[in-house]
Design brief:
The chain is mainly alpha-helical and 124 residues long. 41% of the residues lie in helices and 0% in strands. The longest helix is centred in the middle third of the chain and has 13 residues.
Length: 124
């Protein structure tokens, strides 16, 4: 029998809930932020990514509804610190706090997913 004790251990710092080092995110706060117009661009998250993050207004904009929370948080942190660049997203993310990033990423991760898993699709 193999013991999986590592799985039951509590994190070293339970105040951080993600691999991105962010505090716990809250769906309700994230939903409120996703619908609020950003000061930098006058746009909200849903203006560009659509309701629940699943209907982008432009085919080059990603579907973010149901995406992994840590991935969304990492992307927003990268836009904020300048290591990832997009004319709209960089402006939107620049003023976000860690808590706001945690809330937004938690909200969009909680939405229904229209993402497609193509694992194994090349095999017959």
């Amino acid at each position: 029998m193999i013991a999986l004790s590592a799985c039951s251990q509590t994190p070293a710092d339970p105040s951080h809930s993600s691999s991105a080092g962010l505090p716990q995110g809250y769906v309700a706060a994230g939903e409120q932020m996703a619908n609020a117009k950003g000061a930098a661009t006058g746009q909200s998250c849903i203006d560009c990514h659509g309701a629940d993050g699943n209907a982008p207004i432009d085919t080059t904009y990603p579907v973010i509804g149901g995406q992994y929370q840590d991935y969304l948080a990492y992307a927003l942190q990268s836009y904020r610190d300048g290591s990832r660049d997009h004319v709209m997203m960089s402006m939107q993310a620049k003023a976000l706090t860690d808590q706001q990033i945690a809330d937004l990423s938690t909200y969009f991760a909680s939405r229904p997913s229209n993402l497609v898993n193509l694992t194994g699709s090349h095999k017959k």
